[in-house]
């Protein structure tokens, strides 16, 4: 289970009356029914937004090869799927994510193909990083144990110890990301 940890920001928003307080998710707590694993802080928890089907607005900054900002795209998660891949003595997992988005801003010429490639790489990087940081806490961030139990309860019983599935970096075998670019705003993309 993932529980957001909020903090109060009193420095970012102002209006005529003065400072406006704003709630921000500063980290997430990773826990199960019986155990608290620890916290995943902002950058380490970014993969969670791509895993949750109810993510409606997730921005990604698109960089060029030199690390300069090229543009901004805002995405919505359309679908996610976790598929256990069972072999004789082990199980690995594949994550499929489908996102749709709109290009909000573009400061340099680029093609739709380059944007999609950049977005796919960033989402895969976020998902992998969150998974690996969860492993450092001995947690199952993406509920792989649950997905195995739902698909193959006998294999789940065989592979779990005290209802805990042993996971390692290789347990996340593959991440597949599909990106649908709905529009590019006023900026035309090169083909």
Please describe the topology of this protein:
Elements: E1 2-15, E2 18-31, E3 36-41, H1 47-51, E4 58-63, E5 69-86, E6 91-106, H2 112-136, H3 144-151, H4 153-159, E7 160-161, E8 164-165, E9 172-183
Parallel strand pairs: 6-9
Antiparallel strand pairs: 1-2, 2-3, 4-5, 5-6, 7-8
Helix percentage: 10-25%
CATH class: Alpha Beta
Overall pLDDT: 88
Number of helices: 4
**Biggest sheet layout:** 4 strands, mixed
Q: What is the string of SSEs from the N terminus onward?
A: EEEHEEEHHHEEE
Q: How many distinct folded domains?
A: 1
Strand order within the widest beta sheet: 4-5-6-9
Secondary structure tally: strands: 9
Tell me the CATH topology.
GMP Synthetase, Chain A, domain 3
Can you put this structure into words, describing what you see?
It contains four helices and nine strands; from the N terminus they run βββαβββαααβββ. By secondary structure, the chain is of the alpha+beta class. It has one domain (43-183): GMP Synthetase, Chain A, domain 3 (2-Layer Sandwich), CATH 3.30.300.210. Strands 4-5-6-9 form a four-stranded mixed sheet, sandwiched between helices. The protein has a three-stranded antiparallel sheet with strand order 1-2-3. A two-stranded antiparallel sheet has the order 7-8. A hairpin with a 5-residue loop joins strand 4 (58-63) and strand 5 (69-86). Helix 3 packs across helix 4. It is globular. The termini are far apart.
